[in-house]
Amino acid sequence: MTDLFIDTDVIIDFLIDRKPHSREAAVIFTLIEQKKLKGYVSSLTFSNLYYVMRKIESHNKVILKLESLSNMVSILKVEEQTIKNALASGFPDFEDSIQYFCAIDNKRIDIIITRNTKDYRKSNIPVMTPGDYLKSAVS
To answer: Could you give the CA distance from residue 13 to residue 17 in angstroms, rounded to a whole number?
Structure first.
């Protein structure tokens, strides 16, 4: 089974049905629900999701969606060293650097799934968009 670290942008696409990206994100999460893939997110993801989603939905709706997400994926801790590594990394996007080092710390992650592949240029783990991953998984 492939272990995927799912970046926040892909989860937002899925949870708020952000077109045109939601279809591919939904396929990824369907495969996770079917136990064909294993999904991982960082604990940081939940506060980021709440912050973004609360601007367009009620507190209760957001919490329900986050609870559902928490039942689908494994949640990885963001440790002190994760933050220190992110600060020293030189990644162009600090939030993505935290996500990256959280994935690295896990040691089981096969691929990072994000729409912001350019922010992960320094990655030692393969990085793919949801669409590219789905195309590669089918072939």
So the answer is: 5
Range of the domain at 6: 2-138
Per-residue pLDDT tens digits of the chain, which is 139 residues long:
899 999 999 999 999 998 999 999 999 999 999 999 999 999 999 999 999 999 999 999 999 999 999 999 999 999 999 999 999 998 889 999 999 999 999 889 999 999 999 888 889 999 999 999 999 976 5
Are the CB atoms for 116 and 7 separated by under 8 Å? yes
When divided into structural domains, the chain yields a total of 1
Strand order in the sheet with 2-6: 74-76, 37-42, 2-6, 111-113, 127-128
pTM comes to 0.93
CATH number at residue 31: 3.40.50.1010
Structure tokens at 137: 């998984």
